[in-house]
Structures are given as structure tokens and as C-alpha cells.
Amino acid sequence: MTFSQSSFLPPPAAISFNLYHDESGTYVRNGGDRWLMHGVLFVREQRQKELSQALQAVRDELRYYHELHFIKLRKETGAKAECIRKWLKLYLGFSEYCFYHCLAIDTKSPAFRHDKFSEPYYVYNYFARTAIVGGISWFLKGYSKVKLQIFSDPKWRRKNDNFARYIPQAVLASINEKRQNKPGSYPEIILADQSITLVDSDPQKVRPVLKPASEFIQLTDLLTSSVAQALNASSGNQAKIDLAQMMASWIEDTRRPPWLQTKELHRRFSLSCFPNEKGQYYNPNLAVTQRDQLSLF
Asked: Are 39 and 63 in contact (CB under 8 A)?
């Protein structure tokens, strides 16, 4: 009996990613916001310290150590606005191992099935899971085994809302089911924790051990809220419009065929919108690009 050399090779080790989740928009049946956004940032654990140090260097340069939250951005100038701009540009430079996916749900679409969800938090949880699964499919297809640690911003939730434990288990079940049909299209997922780690987005309140995670939660918020503003142009604040225009340029670039893209964001940054009137994914117009007298920075 003969054995090939590959018969004695150990199975491939799992590649570790930390996943950071945040959302924009509020779902209320027959009310609330039109767009419900779930943003997920996949950070290669092996490179996270390098990116974390780069984010910290920006804070040190500008002497700004407060929470970076899109909704609290008011002025176009100043340390906060400059810190946010530099963070987003840093993401662009680190996107080779720092992937961002946003799922935008059009709750006002005639094809959105409100009747499928008896409680608003079911909508939130279902599409949070969908966003994560979509990101795994798009970004991590080339890995055979991935170890995943999930982080999210703590929010007030009803007592019967099991978000923190539901999401990891639902993601794992969904990926396992999809792997049975298309094993080459999804990696094997190993959960580093059976529950989501909830992290305060205020770096001055969080425990030191979780401070890097807090910074990435803030970065996820900035990306997600900027994408939301690019899509709906709901704010007249120029600082937010400028960030939205930056996101719009990234989104429009990723909508081109890969060989025509110029920002090197293919399979690194993506926006998926759902559903159109036929219940399908689609590319809606970006409202921020239709405003008059806007300038990219």
C-alpha cells in the first residue's frame, strides 16, 4: 500500500477573525426608518494589533480620546471630524485584511414581508444574522476553516430578546446548512465563544482589555452610518454629507466590474440592498450623489 505525501499533512489550521457588528436605523412596523442597516467588520486577528496601533496613533496625533460616534458629529472641522476622516482612510489602507459588509434592508419596499416577524427584535436579529452570513460568503470563501469571535455594541433589549446567544448559533447553523449544498463556497466556522461579546463603544468607559474591541466597534459605526447617509441623505449636516460622499465613491467603485475598479475594494468592502419590488437584491441610487453643490474631500 502506498501513501501520498499529502496523506500525512495535518488538517489546515483555522484562520481567526474578530467580527464587529453595529447597526443604523430603527424598525417599526408601519413606521420607523425606511432603511435598516447592519454593518459587519471582519478583522484578521493576526493583524488586528497593527491596525489598532494605527487607530491609536491618529488619536495621539490629534489628542482626541473621546468616543467617535457618527450621530454626534456636528462640525466639519476640529479634532473629532479630522480623527473620523483619518480613521476611514486608514480602513481603506488596511482593507486587505479588514473586510466590511453592510446589509441595507428596505422596510418600505412592497416586497418586504412584515408578516414574517411578530416582534420588531425578530427583524433586527434575523437581518443581523443575514448580514454576517453574507459577509462570510463574500469575504471568507477562500478559507477552509475560520475561527470567529463576534463583538457588538450593548443596547437596551427586551428580556426575551436572546440576541447575544442567538446570533452565533444561528450563523453557525446557516453556514453548516449551506456547506452541505456548496461545500466549496463557505468555510468551516468555529465559534470562539458561544455568545456575542458586548462592548461599550465609549473608550473611556470600557475595561482596558476590551479597549481595542471598543475602537473597532466605533469604526464599524462610522462605516455603517456613513453608508446609511450615502443611501438616504437624511442629514443636512455638511460633516456627515462629506463622509457619505466618501462612502458613495467607494460603493460606486465596487459596483463596477472588478477589472474597472480603482480603489482595490473588491471582496473587501460591499453594500447589499434588499428587497426591490420583486423581492430581490439590487443597487438603488445613492441619494447623497443627487444633492447639489457637494464636494468630495
From this structure: no
Give the side-chain half-sphere CA count within 13 A for 55: 27
Is residue 88 a contact partner of residue 230, using CB atoms and an 8 Å limit? no
Q: How far is CA 273 from the centre of its chain?
A: 13
Exposed, middle or buried, 34 (CB in 10 Å: 0-12/13-18/19+)?
middle
Q: What is the pLDDT of residues 130-180, one digit of tens each?
A: 999 999 999 999 899 999 999 999 988 888 999 999 999 999 999 999 999
186, 175 contact by CB (below 8 A): yes
Contact 213, 225 (CB under 8 A): no
CA distance 223 to 40: 9
C-alpha cell at 42: 471582519
pLDDT digits (tens, 9 = 90+) for 2-59: 545 545 566 678 899 999 999 999 998 888 899 999 999 999 999 999 999 999 999 9
- At residue 109, φ and ψ (nearest 5 deg) are -65, 140
What length is written for the chain?
Answer: 297
Cross-strand partners of 38? 23, 103
292, pLDDT greater than 90: no
What DSSP letter does each residue of 182-247 carry, written as one string?
-GGGS-EEEES-SSPEE--S-TTTS-GGGHHHHHHHHHHHHHHHHHHHHHH-----HHHHHHHHHH
**Tell me, what amino acid is at 165?**
R
Distance CA 176, CA 297 (A): 43
**Beta-sheet strands, E only, within 15-97:** 15-24, 27-28, 31-32, 35-44
